[in-house]
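Continuing the series of single-chain predictions for the mutant panel. This is the parent chain; the variants come on the following pages.
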Amino acid sequence: MQKYSQFRAFLAILKASFRSILSNPSALFFSLLFPVIFIFIFGSFGGGNGVRYHIAISDYADTTNEVFDSIKANPLLSIVSFKDANGKTDTVARRTALEKDKISAIVSLKKVTDTAGNNRYIIFDTLTNTSGNTIAALQQVFSNITNTIALNHTSQKSMPAIVPYVYSIREYRNIDFVLPGMLGFSILFSTLFGISFTFFQFRQQLILKRFYATPVSRINILLGIGISRLVFQLINVVMLIALGYFFMHFTLVHGFATFLEMSLMTIYMLLLLLGVGLIFSSIVKADTSIPLLINLFAFPQMLLSGTFFPIEVFPNWLQTICRYGLPLTQYNDAIRKISFTGLHLWDCWKELGILAVWMVVIYAIAIKVFKWE
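Parent structure:
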């Protein structure tokens, strides 16, 4: 007698479950088309050229040099003028704009001559302390300008020495922030709705009970149904990354290697969400309760985990909750570090560790509450 093949049974369940997903038009729309629309909308803010910083120029700035000309021509900087009715600089309005974060800095240029007779242009900038990211970004933009000018004069004996020196930066576009957030948004809601409703319907219609009565092992039944949903979501993620990369210039620092690491991080997050879906499908008495539980779990993460805007806009106490109390924050941060910063998966040990703690807790609860009928 031929031995029963658990592997073939697993593949059969996986195939049947995957085909049922593809035959559902609403699943295809909300999982594939809906995130694409969001990416095009949010990724188009600012013309796809990244953040634009508004600055003001000090009254004492030397504006007759190429450093100032480069600042005016830089696409990341926009110079705002504050003039009163007499055409003079309104210093009070300028200072108020700085304090209210309507401008990012008041910039001054000073020309000095060193002992060797070389001209040096020093950039002074008055910044608010509302955003550390803004301060760092502006310093990098100014340093990139000064470094470029210095390189252009390397062949001259009396070249202008530029101060300060930092390093040039990679261009940061809106899509580099938007796409990772939309990946998290997509897999969060699609996976939770798909897993929760699928397992609840299978349990209510006694399909799980019939599966349980077959020779197929219980783990293969759960994996066959769950992995089909995970594979579908992974295909969705691959499509979104390809769309962002080829059509909206999404940054993949190390190319295909970065793409693979993003995919592995997505699989890790999908396994966590699979456990959450199993919990919701097991504890509800009616399918009308599933959307309520999903929204209670997912909406705070959608709003507070850096999906649509940075969490730095929140108060410090809320930022702490966002960073450590929401699993989607870890996924968004890790994907952005891998895709733009150039870190590798093993460099995201903090995010992986926090998600591992979440996973242990979630699957401990899932094992406790899961029901076959």
